[in-house]
Structures
1.
Amino acid sequence: MGSYEQPSLNLEEAKQKPRRRSSSHLAKPLSREEQRRFGEMYVEHQGLIRLLGSKLCRKYPVVDKLDVYSCIDIGFLKTCRAFDPSLGFKFSTLLTKFCEGTILHFIRDHNWHVKAPPKVRQLGQAARKLAAKGHSIAEVIELLATSREELRLALAATAGMYHEQNEWEGHCCSRPTPMELLEREEG
């Protein structure tokens, strides 16, 4: 076996080592030259940006149109920084990937206002599936090996956020939701 070598604490040596390129293409502010070049590229690729915007608005109807275009702008900046023609990729291919990724990050970050822990979300989803199959609340509690209070909290934590604000009833059929059954039994 090889022996362990103590890492060097020489500051001059550390300064000379090549620095890794930042994984974030927006980590540092744009220079004046980059701003000018990116502006020219934006005008040059305006048709592509509009086409991509309409395509992504159709693909992600849950995201507001302005948010989609904001994500496209961020993706465009990332693409301009990352684009290297010598690698053989087309600008449009890279732009599409960066824009899709930015929109997916946006959806992930704005999906839940207060994110419930994964176990709570799984419990709420499992309870809803069992109730949809016709199981009673007592059977759901028994099958999921949980308490009545844990089930109530999981159902509350995984309920839709905007049902009351949008005047939309999340459950359209005549069968009550698991949360409604719990509330009836308690009340």
2.
Amino acid sequence: MEAKNVETTKVFYHSEVTTLNGIHDVAVREIDAMYKEAEKTGLKEIAPMQFVYYGLDDKPDTKFTLEIAIVVDEEKPYAGKYKFKDLTGFKCVSTIHKGSINKLGKTYEKFMPELFKSGNKMTDQSREVYHNYVEQDSPENITEIQIGVN
């Protein structure tokens, strides 16, 4: 577990209310389309894609807001489905998950007790930063889990 301050970044993003059970469907529907729009718009990705969660808990049917964010170098004129914003920096604790995205839950299960034991108070925001994504079940995936703290 590592404490860190994440800097504000410019993102091209999609926002949607979903549930844990719905994340995969949103990702499959939106990610390729987002990258096509980013390419058509001439955007340059400068850091790994992030999933930003607001109000996420461990219950499969709880509704929360998911933002799928491509970190870009600048905002450009664009009139399509996706939006730009400054993704505000935040204080967090993080850990690294290596392997299948389907096994991220196991890393959360190990990480959360450490977080509570540390005395940090969670905010309603968490993020997953996809440092290396090969495919859903790849053992080569590297995902950083970031939990916002006060």
3.
Amino acid sequence: MQARFNKIFALGIGLKSASLVFHVRTGTVDVMNKTVIEVQVRAVLPTSGGCAVFIGNNDKVFIIYVDQTVGSAITMFMRQITKERPLTHDLMAHLMTALGAKVDRVIINDLKNATYYARVIIRVENELQQKKIIELDGRPSDCIAMATQQKAPIYVSQEVWDEVDDMSDVLRKMEEEGLKPDPETEE
């Protein structure tokens, strides 16, 4: 298994203001003879139909469009905002914790007719120290939200990576046009 990682740095920006949430770390990993690239949620921006989630690393960034509620959840998880009452992803996390499970990783593994597909890999360990790995199909938006919430890595298959358009310039241009880092996530 080969891995290359760069230093993590964060710039923050939020949904309700003219700002984004950024996180960057790069890497490539060979998993079960299939190359995947480690990515992070680089930014979440509201759109007229929901949210644009910018996903990528230092080499490339692409966009997955998600509904407003999941976009808001991803942003809250990135900012570690506590909610008065649990949201759907919180409920799922509580249920998984009660069962001794956690998100191990997420893989955005396919792109067909402009629709992304993802798998969430869940690691379970019970009170007898018995371990199990479960792989589930899921909407990329939900998988990304769960990975962000549980601080699990997100990967993109090499095939998807090669197919998506690089939106790094769009993200960079938005930063240059006055989007400022969120002070609470600056280091």
4.
Amino acid sequence: MTEIAARAKFAATPGIAATPGVVATPGIPAMPVQAAADAQSDVAHWQAVFDASAALFAELADGARMGLIAQPGFAPAGRRLAGLDAAAAKCAGLPMLAFEATAGRVGVRREPFAGFGGARLDLLFVADEEARAELAATPVDATLRAMKRLIRRGNVMFFVFRTRHELQEAGYEDFLDSLGLAFLGACR
């Protein structure tokens, strides 16, 4: 469902007031809709980040895919997969930045988040609004360091959908190490 269709659907729901520029989804705090210019600048910013860090991503296999969504209140209910799936279902259709490796380069585009299965992701970063704003305002050469700090601070949640072996085969080792995430453990 597109953002416009989602806004129209929920605006027509009794008890939900339509506010221009805000997406109202039952069970999720209201979130401002990102203006098209902001969305394009996010795509351009992240494309510049990946281009400037090309050596870090050079080993990614074609089809390696990551996503970034900005969603305040994305909190799985409990530690079970069902709670995580429920949180993802509530966010279906929200804008996502998709990062996909093709021919030795990571391309960035904006697409709707299709849930964990539909998005075909290896890794997903879910940023709160503070983190999204900080990442967008951070210079290109410092964005990945900011991402590392925001993950440690808890402003960015990190989800992995592949096994360690699959991630290694896809070439993620250097990137995950750069974020300070234990990838293969202390003993290699």
